[in-house]
Design brief:
The structure holds two protein chains of two kinds. By secondary structure, chain A is mostly helical. Chain A is built from nine helices and no strands. Chain B is α/β, with parallel strands linked by helices. The chains are: A mainly alpha, B alpha/beta. Chains A and B meet through helix 5 of A and strand 6 and helix 4 of B. The complex binds adenosine-5'-triphosphate and magnesium ion.
């Protein structure tokens, strides 16, 4: 019982310090100096270099949803709903969540490792002695990049996921290509896309925040950097799934 | 000589967990002079410098830089004080995402005092002072040897023209000739440019070359302080044992906690 209580307080104080870290970074966003070059670097890392993994993930998940829902729905003679099911599941859920998880593993981990190494080799301290605020220099560009890049990435994933469903639908399930696409277009609602991109922005922010927080506060040499990297990925993944529920509740629950 | 010390430390205390590292340090460094700090490995020399830079929060005591109490300053004012201090970290702490020349010119670029082109020229000048060719400027820090990294760190510390300079083991890892060159450079900064310097070193020849004053740290306290010229014949048994590197004496090797 006592152990549960301790764990609870520990989690709470951790959440508190992450929130403070994030808020502190946010206050720096509007105050100069701005590091445009670092923002662009982080943005390219988040978007362009994540494109291959995220694209593959999206295509395959669209394909598998088409296949699975056909297996289930054809029993009720509802196979014509496949394009709609693929659309909803990909755009509302799979594209943002899977892109978030992929980026957490790719970029969030790298961020934690980079900032962690900078911490344990005194590079972050050195920034302070060279008239540079390390939060502004290291954290702010990454948070901005994550928040702005993920929607772009997820937009691509949305399209590719739907195309994955279309691929399986036409090649294997006997859909007419034109009908499949028309069905999809008819069913498409702008709200779904808005939610998809909003989720993406939140997840991108979370990935960057976790990468920066754990890296920035890492301690104790190579082992500490390793722990920071693991923690960044694990906590970002959990937060993505938790916030996914919260956002879905917010937008779609009646 | 003005009588306000550039750095005035009183009763500085710091422990990590239950390990007491600094136990009431009192130290003055007068303007335009250099102070050498010696002491055994793990005696808290680096922690002392980091406290003065505000990178480590001490448990008790006061630190004044040019008469300003650091521990009571607001963040903005603290940053202003910090920007008057150039620091060479013990491990160099070079930014490995940037080429050498940008490392050296980092402080200049950060304060937007100069254009990138001028910064680059200035970086090449300072690199030459530490005995590195301008072509080294295009390499990344990971491509340098340990001693070269140290010298780039030193170049970065002095490039901004800081009035206060901290050197954490500036000549460790350098060959004897290069060590003498670097010592000369540090003396130059103090004598010619009027900077105030604190240097940590384990090299007694270097200590006497660099230092006006010297202080010895042992078990978290300053056990001796005096002119650096007198380091080798201070009459203090602890300093004597340390500077002459004798195994027997008042300082016994103990396993560090
Ligand atoms: N961030 C830290 N957390 C915990 N302990 C620390 C930290 N930094 C330093 N210490 C401890 O403080 C003591 C003094 O360390 P410091 O780096 O100041 O030694 P030093 O005198 O510079 O030694 P050396 O000559 O080997 O560089 C050591 O015992 C070290 O373990
Ligand atoms: Mg040290």
């Amino acid at each position: 019982m006592a152990a549960v209580g301790r764990g609870f307080w520990l989690a709470l104080s951790m959440a508190g310090s992450i929130a403070l870290f994030g808020l502190n970074a946010l206050t720096h966003i509007v105050r100069p100096p701005f590091y445009g070059r670092l923002f662009v670097q982080a943005f390219v890392e988040f978007s362009y270099f994540s494109l291959p993994v995220v694209s593959l993930t999206a295509v395959f998940s669209g394909m598998v949803i088409a296949l699975q829902s056909y297996a289930g729905f054809s029993r009720y003679g509802a196979a014509t709903a496949i394009p709609n099911i693929v659309l909803i599941s990909v755009v509302r859920e799979l594209a943002p969540v899977l892109a978030g998880l992929m980026v957490a593993g790719r970029v969030g981990a790298a961020m934690a490792a980079e900032l962690g190494t900078m911490r344990v080799t005194d590079q972050i301290d050195a920034l302070t002695t060279l008239s540079t605020n390390p939060v502004k220099y290291l954290v702010v560009p990454r948070l901005l990049a994550g928040t702005l890049a993920l929607p772009l990435l997820v937009l691509v994933a949305d399209v590719l996921g739907v195309m994955g469903g279309w691929l399986v639908g036409t090649a294997k399930l006997g859909f007419n290509s034109h009908t499949y696409l028309m069905n999809t277009m008819d069913f498409l609602q702008s709200m779904d896309v808005v939610v998809s991109l909003a989720k993406a922005a939140v997840f991108g922010f979370l990935v960057a925040l976790m990468g920066c927080y754990h890296g920035y506060n890492s301690r104790g040499g190579a082992v500490g950097v390793g722990t920071a990297t693991t923690n960044a990925v694990v906590s970002a993944s959990i937060l993505i799934l938790a916030f996914d529920y919260v956002l879905t509740e917010l937008f779609f629950a009646q | 000589m003005s009588d306000t010390p550039t750095i005035r430390i009183r009763g500085l205390t710091k422990s990590f967990g239950d390990k007491l590292v600094l136990d009431g340090i009192d130290l003055d460094v007068m303007p335009g002079t250099s102070m050498v700090v010696i002491g055994g490995s793990g005696s808290g020399k680096s922690v002392l410098l980091k406290c003065v830079l505000g990178l480590i929060q001490p448990d008790a005591g006061t630190i004044e830089v040019n008469g300003q109490d650091l521990l009571r300053l607001r963040a903005g004012a603290l940053d202003a004080v910090r920007s008057t201090i150039g620091m060479l970290f013990q491990n160099g702490a070079l930014f490995d995402s940037l080429p050498v020349w940008e490392n050296v010119a980092f402080g200049l670029l950060a304060t937007h005092a100069v254009t990138r082109r001028t910064a680059r020229v200035r970086a090449a000048e300072v690199l030459a002072q530490v005995g590195l060719d301008a072509s080294v400027g295009d390499l990344s820090p990971a491509e340098l040897s340990g001693g070269m990294q140290k010298r780039v760190g030193l170049a970065r510390a002095i490039a901004g023209g800081a009035k206060i300079l901290f050197f954490d083991e500036p000549t460790t890892g350098l060959d004897p000739i290069m060590g003498a060159v670097i010592d000369g450079l540090i003396v130059d900064c103090v004598k010619r440019l009027g900077s105030t310097a604190v240097a940590i070193t384990h090299d007694m020849a270097s200590a006497r070359r660099i230092g006006d004053q010297a202080a010895m740290l042992y078990k978290g306290r300053i056990v001796w302080q005096g002119a650096a010229a007198g380091l080798m014949d201070s009459g203090n048994p602890m300093v004597d044992q340390f500077t002459h590197g004798r195994r027997d004496g008042p300082i016994q090797m103990e396993l560090r906690k």
